[in-house]
């Protein structure tokens, strides 16, 4: 029997068949190994296909690059914002459930593009793996400037001076992310000046002569029938307010009388002077009934508490002293100023005591504790005058640099009254909102309280025979009605001013020219 000899062709076919058989037998092992490795790092089992590795890698690369490089400065484009809804509506990705994939239904989420569950041979990453180029192009189109409008509500009352305002194409800000380029920093609101009220101009009504020295202090009694004046001639004179005639002269001080106050609760007149004395005069007997000792130098100012039987005085010893009227005892020593206390005011509510000093500060005091509540350091020069508004809860302070308006109880700055370029010695406010300021050179300014508009500028009229250097205003006060203004001046006279009854808005129009800017200090 002849042996069969295989040809080279047959040998080649057999080797090929054997190799094919071996390859087919290794493919399940490779598939199992790849799936095991994938499950080890993925954290859950799912089918895996070697044929889609390239497409998923490309989509994942785009997703990671988008998240790392563009997420911090861009919101989700509109094209990607609706991917989840599109996939749910067209049914092209039924294997991806709404609970397993991140469809990016919100404008900004903590993680924008992440891997989802695996179902079948597709992998949900927020982009369709079968058409990666198309979705990537949509991402690039969205990054070119097509942004969604903000869905966050703006606060109705911003509390900061500068807020982040969204533009028409601005995007909402995610937690912890910087604002998108479409947003810009703008001011909360533009400054809108208050329109001033019309006030009639004031003119000179009467000149009262009688003192032989500068008139340094004034006080109107609560019944509005008479007023008192203190002078450098060391006397206190009582004048009839209606006629301007002299009714009484009180002597007792041995130095200029710098402060006067008439009590609304008792028939007492209080006076202080540069002789370090504080006196209480009984108006029924016209004699001194009490004296308050304690000041180490001249006493420049005093004020009565409107409710309590308390007297507050201030002077060159840089302190304000609180006295009990009846017992003559010193209740508090309000220490803190570094120079002369030139002005004191008292009111019912805290701060019950306000002091102005030559150290260019204004202090608000807690009367119960005897300590300072706040110190206002806005002025640059000596504060020589203070005035309380009779109706509103606020006050003004005067210095040679500016007249400043404040709001109680914390002493919040309101506005400046600019334009009185002089050493302002006195301030007065009436219930109609007219603020008067008198300067050391005889200049007079009348202001509207709310707007800070100066509606009248004038100079005092000196007494015939006086020097030009004697044109100075040292003290002023409105009467109880607010229709009369009394000034004490350096020409040794007392002048009474009243509103011009013939003036109207046509004859004296308001020439209000507000500035675009507003000083905040």
From TrEMBL:
PROSITE patterns: WD_REPEATS_1, WD_REPEATS_2, WD_REPEATS_REGION. Pfam families: WD40. Residues 82-101 are annotated as: Disordered. WD repeats lie at residues 208-249, 250-291, 292-333, 334-375, 417-457. Residues 90-101 have a biased composition (Polar residues). It comes from the Eukaryota. GO terms for biological process: mRNA splicing, via spliceosome. SMART domains: WD40. Signal peptide: none annotated. GO terms for cellular component: catalytic step 2 spliceosome; precatalytic spliceosome; Prp19 complex. Keywords: Repeat, WD repeat. Belongs to the WD repeat PRL1/PRL2 family. PANTHER family: PLEIOTROPIC REGULATOR 1 (PTHR19923:SF0), WD40 REPEAT PROTEINPRL1/PRL2-RELATED (PTHR19923). This is Pre-mRNA-splicing factor prp46. It comes from Coemansia spiralis.
């Amino acid at each position: 029997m002849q042996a069969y000899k295989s040809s080279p062709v047959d040998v080649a076919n057999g080797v090929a068949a054997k190799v094919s058989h071996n390859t087919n037998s290794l493919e399940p092992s490779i598939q199992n190994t790849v799936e095991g490795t994938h499950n080890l790092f993925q954290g859950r089992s799912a089918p895996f296909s070697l044929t889609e590795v390239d497409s998923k890698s490309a989509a994942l690369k785009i997703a990671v690059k988008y998240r790392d490089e563009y997420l911090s400065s861009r919101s989700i484009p509109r094209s990607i914002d609706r991917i989840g809804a599109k996939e749910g509506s067209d049914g092209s990705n039924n294997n991806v459930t709404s609970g397993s994939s991140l469809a990016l239904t919100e404008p900004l989420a903590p993680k924008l593009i992440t891997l989802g569950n695996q179902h079948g041979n597709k992998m949900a990453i927020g982009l369709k793996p079968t058409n990666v180029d198309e979705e990537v192009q949509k991402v690039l189109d969205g990054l070119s400037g097509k942004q969604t409008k903000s869905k966050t509500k703006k606060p109705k009352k911003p509390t900061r001076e500068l807020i982040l305002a969204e533009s028409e194409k601005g995007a909402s800000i995610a937690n912890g992310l910087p604002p998108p380029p479409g947003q810009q920093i703008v001011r909360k609101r533009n400054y809108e000046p208050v329109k001033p009220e019309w006030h009639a101009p004031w003119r000179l009504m009467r000149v009262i002569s009688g003192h032989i020295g500068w008139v340094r202090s004034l006080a109107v009694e609560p019944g509005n029938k008479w007023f008192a004046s203190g002078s450098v001639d060391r006397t206190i004179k009582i004048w009839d307010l209606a006629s301007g005639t002299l009714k009484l002269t009180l002597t007792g001080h041995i130095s200029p009388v710098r402060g006067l106050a008439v009590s609304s609760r008792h028939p007492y007149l209080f006076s202080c002077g540069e002789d370090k004395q504080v006196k209480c005069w009984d108006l029924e007997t016209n004699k001194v009934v009490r004296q308050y000792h304690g000041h180490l130098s001249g006493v420049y100012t005093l004020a009565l508490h409107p409710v309590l039987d308390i007297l507050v005085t201030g002077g060159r010893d840089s302190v304000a002293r609180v006295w009990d009227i009846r017992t003559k005892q010193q209740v508090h020593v309000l220490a803190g100023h570094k120079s002369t206390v030139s002005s004191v005011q008292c009111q019912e509510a805290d701060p019950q005591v306000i002091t102005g000093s030559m150290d260019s500060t204004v202090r608000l005091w807690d009367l119960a504790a005897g300590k300072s509540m706040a110190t206002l350091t806005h002025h640059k020069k000596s504060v020589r005058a203070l005035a309380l508004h009779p109706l509103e809860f606020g006050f003004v302070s005067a210095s040679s640099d500016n007249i400043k308006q404040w709001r109680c109880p914390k002493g919040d700055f309101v506005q400046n009254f600019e334009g009185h370029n002089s050493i302002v010695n006195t301030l007065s406010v009436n219930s109609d909102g007219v603020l008067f300021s008198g300067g050391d050179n005889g200049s007079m300014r009348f202001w509207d309280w709310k707007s800070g508009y100066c509606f009248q500028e004038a100079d005092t009229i000196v007494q015939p025979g006086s020097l030009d250097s004697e044109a100075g205003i040292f003290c002023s006060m409105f009467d109880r009605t607010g229709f009369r203004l009394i000034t004490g001046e350096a020409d040794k006279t007392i002048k009474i001013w009243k509103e011009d009854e013939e003036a109207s808005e046509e004859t004296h129009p308001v020439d209000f020219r507000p500035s675009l800017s507003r000083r905040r200090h």
